[in-house]
Input
Amino acid sequence: MDSIEQFNLDSRRNVEGMGNDQALQALANAWFNGVAPYKYSYNFAWMGRPIIQIPQDVSAMQEIIWSVRPDLIIETGIAHGGSLIFSASMLALLDMVDAIEANTTMDPRQSKRKVLGIDIDIRANNRSAIETHPMASRIQMLQGSSIAADVVGQVKSIAAGYERVLVCLDSNHTHDHVLAELEAYAPLTSVGSYCVVFDTLVEDLPADMFLNRPWGPGNNPKTAVWKYLESHPEFEIDKSIQNKLLITVAPDGYLKRLA
Ligand SMILES: C[S@@+](CC[C@H](N)C(=O)[O-])C[C@H]1O[C@@H](n2cnc3c(N)ncnc32)[C@H](O)[C@@H]1O
Output
């Protein structure tokens, strides 16, 4: 075994060890309880736009995008645009890598790779900041509910022109809404790619953290994922990602499409 294989084997063993360490999992949840009053996930930005994610999940998304090399990333939930800008910047890097490998130069505005964002309420200031951002040429936005038939239809017809599709669900976090999003968008995920469902963590946190929200333990993205998987064996939870992150808002939310 060479040193790289040994490194990877050690890493896999350590990740598996963390996944089996219940005390460590409890510490991670306690950490979330501790940072919640400070709205931890609202304090980061990507290329100047607020991104409502925690750095651990952003890091996992980078690894997924590098391994899948998608040409389309579909995201529900735009907010300030940080996650759209992040995805677009990763697609820009993939274009750069393609150009280096092909020994060509490329005009980024000619790239086919795209991020498609959907939000029920794209505020004027957010829209303007996204549309004037250097990553804007790779971003298309649709306004409307992500589960409205006309929006789903538009997304499906856009996705039909792409081969490698990655899906991220991060809008309304109720069970019914996320289940409807999964029914609509998970089938667009390419084989080998992921449908990432954010905020599944709600299931594991105390109910009093969500008193002013329509979701909470028992009614959230994780319960929707579990329900969806009952009849969709073509997806499996990639536990290696949450075991590695330990601190993630998407436990049981990294769904890999197997077939
Ligand atoms: C958590 S934020 C998204 C954060 C963003 N993905 C990021 O990482 O920066 C949730 C967004 O979902 C949007 N939203 C809520 N209900 C929705 C619905 N029914 N359809 C589409 N978007 C919705 C909200 O307007 C809000 O902008």
Q: What stands out?
A: The chain has a mean pLDDT of 97. The chain is about 45% helix and 15% strand. The first strand starts at residue 44 and ends at 46.
